[in-house]
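$ ./design --mode recover --in tokens.txt
reading tokens...
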């Protein structure tokens, strides 16, 4: 038999088993915004996670653009990550960016040419 190791994640699992629901208060949790290439009009799956380890779904919706998805997240939490069509994950929150993200998402840039679609800037 193997040895059982205790970790910080153990306390996260215990809150899940106890059935504790996250409060869902604005300013808490983490938002994941995931590009969905499913082909319909709504291309970003938006998840607001909360609870002791941000492991409980508080709210889910879909948005058509990355800017709309980030706006949805910003209304809920300062911590957000967005998975873009390039399969890289960028920081989209107003809180300081933690390590591990490919860059920082910036709001779409408006162009003087009305035929061009605004493009998000990734740094």
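writing sequence...
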């Amino acid at each position: 038999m193997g040895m059982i190791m205790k970790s910080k994640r153990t306390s996260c699992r215990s809150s899940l088993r106890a059935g504790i629901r996250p409060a869902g208060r604005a300013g808490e949790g983490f938002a994941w915004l995931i590009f969905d290439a499913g082909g319909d009009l709504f291309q970003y799956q938006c998840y607001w996670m909360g609870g002791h380890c941000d492991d409980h779904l508080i709210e889910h919706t879909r948005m058509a653009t990355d800017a709309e998805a980030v706006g949805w997240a910003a209304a809920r939490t300062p911590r957000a990550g967005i998975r873009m069509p390039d399969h890289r994950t960028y920081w989209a929150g107003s809180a300081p960016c933690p390590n591990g993200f490919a860059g920082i998402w910036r709001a779409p840039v408006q162009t003087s040419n009305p035929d061009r679609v605004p493009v998000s800037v990734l740094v």
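exit 0
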